[in-house]
Write a structure and sequence with these properties.
With 339 residues, the chain is an alpha+beta fold. The chain is 26% helix and 27% strand. The chain has three domains: 66 residues, Uridine Diphospho-n-acetylenolpyruvylglucosamine Reductase, domain 2 (2-Layer Sandwich); 112 residues, Uridine Diphospho-n-acetylenolpyruvylglucosamine Reductase, domain 3 (2-Layer Sandwich), CATH 3.30.465; 104 residues, Uridine Diphospho-n-acetylenolpyruvylglucosamine Reductase, domain 1, CATH 3.90.78. The strands form six sheets. It has a five-stranded antiparallel β-sheet with strand order 6-7-12-10-11, with no helix packed on it. Strand 17 and strand 18 form a beta hairpin. Helix 4 packs across helix 5. The chain starts with 5 loop residues before the first strand and ends with a strand. Bound molecules: flavin-adenine dinucleotide (FAD) and NADP nicotinamide-adenine-dinucleotide phosphate. NADP nicotinamide-adenine-dinucleotide phosphate binds next to strand 8 and strand 13.
Length: 339
């Protein structure tokens, strides 16, 4: 199948904020060969490259003077199965949540806490997606990426990806690596993770004390549907800020001033603060400035009420950053990739 590049294409349907921006050139790729053809086209037209999956971790603040490559490759496969441990591989363009559901339907546990995260498999390693106490890295085995510098394929092990809290090597070498497929080790023996209070509480309200991975997934989907705005109805990119990890002394000082501070000690001695709590405490929850606002149920989520520009979202985010820094001496780092 040949590439069908489109000039000056709207990206509104390709970012979960629903922000209008034009791509100078837009192509959708389904195979490795098409990815290579798209890269050659970009070079021929002397355009930089922006790879996108579901556009659910992206804030477009201007038109994209680049070749936008939309990863749309499909394919799910079991590579090895010893009856307990199972190695699965998914193509980058597979949608994350349907992929998780597929693993659960195969009787494979591991990814259930990451249910209902929007986006694609290929983008998931970028920020080492995480939710409810599980991160992608916990079940990650390896990935195959195309190196734009050399044009060669390279397999990455988990250590080589330098995964950290909402972070990876790929975030730091943005534009160099095109992730083509990702591999996970899953298990037929369930070892569910119920560390997060609301999850355990939801299951126990349902009378489920020893849940299966499928039941954990269903509980998480229900909690998320109640709390988070659906991008199809209200544009957003999930959490707009990462939870800051601060020195223990600062957390202690803040707790003296705010006894209800939400804080979690980390293995490295630092303390993770809930960014949502800081923003809510600063009075931003539910606020609206024209077309943009802070969600009324979740202070970490910035929303587009319909016709916001990316710049308006960014302006609001910067106001929140400055206010939180002034009140609590804590810097909130933005999570989405800002273009
Ligand atoms: P995109 O937004 O398309 O791209 C993100 C970045 O990755 C960009 O820099 C892009 O250039 C790059 N990229 C995309 N695909 C590739 C590829 N194949 N190769 C190389 N680079 C690539 N995140 C969490 O971690 N946990 C959550 O619980 C969570 N919940 C969310 C809830 C909502 C309602 C929303 C809207 C978002 C949420 N997110 C969450 C953020 C987001 O869903 C994830 O970061 C997701 O992995 C982004 O996938 P995507 O395909 O949409 O990436
Ligand atoms: P929540 O349950 O209200 O908790 C608030 C914050 O406290 C979370 O951000 C979480 O940090 C932290 N937390 C809660 N229980 C914890 C525990 N037992 N140990 C350590 N940290 C704990 O959070 P929420 O907003 O409803 O989100 C639920 C989960 O979904 C979280 O893991 C969150 O990261 C994830 N989520 C992510 C996005 C995104 O776009 N990145 C969007 C929606 C939801 P962590 O965030 O570090 O887990």
């Amino acid at each position: 199948m040949s590439l069908q590049p489109r000039e000056q294409a709207s990206l509104k349907a390709f970012n979960s904020f629903g922000i209008e921006a034009q791509a100078r050139l837009f192509v959708q790729t389904h195979t490795d060969q098409q990815v290579r053809e798209a890269l050659a086209l970009g070079e021929q037209r002397q355009l930089p490259l922006l790879v996108i999956g579901g556009g659910s971790n992206l804030l477009l603040t201007r038109d994209v003077e680049a070749l936008v490559l939309h990863m749309a490759s499909r394919g799910l496969r079991i590579l090895a199965d010893d009856g307990v441990q199972v190695l699965v591989e998914a193509e980058a363009g597979e949608l994350w949540h349907p992929f998780v559901q597929w693993t659960l339907q195969q009787g494979l546990g591991g990814l259930e806490n990451l249910s209902l995260i929007p986006g694609t498999v290929g983008a998931a390693p970028m920020q080492n997606i995480g939710a409810y106490g599980v991160e992608l890295k916990d079940h990650f085995v390896g990935l195959t990426a195309l190196d734009r510098r050399s044009g060669e394929l390279r397999d990455f092990s988990r250590d080589e990806c330098a995964f950290a809290y909402r972070d990876s090597l790929f975030k730091h070498e943005a534009g160099r690596w095109l992730i083509l497929r990702v591999r996970f080790a899953l298990s037929r023996i369930a070892a569910v993770r119920l560390d997060y209070g609301p999850l355990r509480q939801r299951l126990s309200e349902q009378g489920i004390e020893q849940p299966t991975p499928m039941q954990v997934s269903q509980a998480i989907c229900a909690i998320r549907r109640e709390k988070l705005p659906d991008p199809a109805e209200l544009g957003n990119a999930g959490s707009f800020f990462k939870n800051p990890q601060v020195p223990a002394e600062l957390a202690e000082r803040l707790r003296g001033e705010y006894p209800d501070l939400v804080a979690y000690p980390q293995a490295d001695g630092r303390v993770k603060l809930a960014a949502g709590w800081l923003i809510e405490r600063a009075g931003w929850k539910g606020c609206r400035q024209g077309e943009v606002g802070v969600h009324r149920l979740q202070a970490l989520v910035l929303v587009n009420y319909g016709n916001a520009s990316g710049q308006q979202v960014l302006d609001l985010a910067r106001q929140i950053q400055a206010d939180v820094a002034q009140r609590f001496a804590v810097y909130l780092e933005m999570e989405p990739n800002v273009y």
